[in-house]
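With this grant's support, we have settled on a layout for protein records. An illustrative entry appears below exactly as we store it:
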Amino acid sequence: MQNLAPPRALLFDWDNTLVDSWLAIHHALEATFVHFGHRPWTLEEVRQRVRASARDAFPAIFKDRAREATALFYDIFERDHLTRLTACSGAETLLRELTASDLYLAVVSNKTGRYLRAEAKQLGWDGLFEGIVGATDAPRDKPAPDPVLLALAPGGIPAGPEVWFVGDTDIDMLCAVNSGCSGVLLRPEPPTEQEFGEARPVAHVADLAALGALVTASRTRNIDPPKPR
């Protein structure tokens, strides 16, 4: 496993990385599943299963009614996602600290772009990112490299090891690999030996405070950055 390069840019996943909007996602999915005669997922199932964008995931679930299901899901989601939105612990503090440095910050999410940007504005974070890229903003969504390139374009920064992709799921780590960036897994549990296959993260941090410490350590080289166990 190669060492983690000091970052020039940080790309953040959104849901379960910087914010918690699972209640809104679960509510909209539950109503959509029931409408189309599917067993609704529990909140825990939603947390575990929701990875891809609706345009990538819904055709497998709803078949020839995917477009209709997508429209219903977003109609329900749009009604209350801002009222159910909360920031993850330590997110705003870390983002403002990073913004005060010379690091380039952007968001790459599989949440539809206009909802993503509305949520960033609701939290007062829209000015903290150079790019906020969501599903359907690029020709392809995560794990394709397209949204990464779009998010980096305003800064003229090429994708590479000095770009950290910070996220909590396998699709985030695969997107990092596909775009040539360094995947940083952010979740309490470290990755298991075989969990990510060829998309194994370069580093793991348990929370946002640990991520901030890792950024500082990597840039100052006071200590060797931690690697996944």
In short: DSSP finds nine helices and eight strands in the chain.
